[in-house]
Amino acid sequence: MEDSVNQWESNIYSKGKQLNRYTWGEVYYYANRYFFPQISRNEDINVLELGSGTGNNLIFFAELGMNVYGIEGSSTACAHAQNKIAKYPNIKSKIICGNFCSHPLPFENNSLDLILDRGALTHNFSKEIKNVLTEAYRVLKPGGLFFSIHFFSDKDSRFGKGIEVDYNTFKDTGGKTFEGVPQVHFSNLEEIYELYDGFTFELIEEKSVKRYRPYEGEDSASFDIVAMKPYE
Ligand SMILES: C[S@@+](CC[C@H](N)C(=O)[O-])C[C@H]1O[C@@H](n2cnc3c(N)ncnc32)[C@H](O)[C@@H]1O
Predict the structure, then answer these.
(1) Is the CB–ligand 1 distance for residue 77 below 6 Å?
(2) Which atom, in ligand 1's list, is nearest to the CA of 117?
(3) Ligand 1 center to residue 53 CA distance, Å?
(4) Which of 139, 165, 163, 152 is nearest to 222 (CA)?
(5) Residue-by-residue pLDDT tens, the chain, 232 positions
(6) What residue segments make up the domains of the chain, in order of their start?
(7) Which CATH superfamily is domain 2-228 in?
(8) Residue located nearest, by CA, to atom 5 of ligand 1
(9) What does the angle CA 199 – CA 200 – CA 201 come to, to the nearest 5 degrees?
(10) Probe residue for ligand 1, chosen from 4, 14, 50, 78 as the CB with the greatest number of ligand atoms within 8 Å
């Protein structure tokens, strides 16, 4: 597993790929739709991103005065994120360079308002994904939200291709869009209900993309999930 986390550094970020500058569109959308309406402006708000990459998503929340935390395996990506976050000295923040599957998550029980996963959890093994979600449940406040965006589905055209390295998890699936990326776990609705045991759902959507140019044949399918830790 450690090896696959290192592949993000060696195959992607150290080669100058995926150095995203700005917040992913879905993060804006789901934050506006589900998160901002339920938080009070006077509170200290704590946001954690699992696989925070270059910090491009976290700056959106930092800009709004929220405390931001990231756990990211690539040292190059961490350095980019630390530079971005340093522009907000008035908030509490920390980018932890490490594997978010190494347990436990370094946060107190009931301490976070939002946990973000944009394209990170889906690149891990099923047992680890389950463990991370159990930990996420522990550290979220009651009413806290978990966004999972681009959690790949078994309806994706790459499902079943390449080498199966774990349950429904494949590497070397071929094609351009997963080039250099470690394994991909492909999920389904039944598994999502098991993974998110204890959470309630604000949203589960499965989105399919038919690709013509330039990645013809690499049709993708993935879930977007907004889950809540219920109030006791
Ligand atoms: C597709 S990128 C997304 C980056 C960022 N979330 C964004 O939306 O731009 C996936 C990120 O998750 C990180 N990642 C995946 N599994 C990880 C793990 N187990 N521990 C730490 N980082 C991980 C990768 O290093 C990579 O930066």
Answers:
(1) yes
(2) 6
(3) 5
(4) 152
(5) 567 889 999 999 999 999 999 999 999 999 999 999 998 777 899 999 999 999 999 999 999 999 999 999 999 999 999 999 999 999 999 999 999 999 899 999 999 999 999 999 999 999 999 999 999 999 999 999 999 999 999 999 999 999 999 999 999 999 899 999 999 999 999 999 999 999 999 999 999 999 999 999 999 999 999 999 999 8
(6) 2-228
(7) Vaccinia Virus protein VP39 (3.40.50.150)
(8) 53
(9) 120
(10) 50
- Both tokens of residue 50? 């699992």
| Token couple for 160 | 């079943």
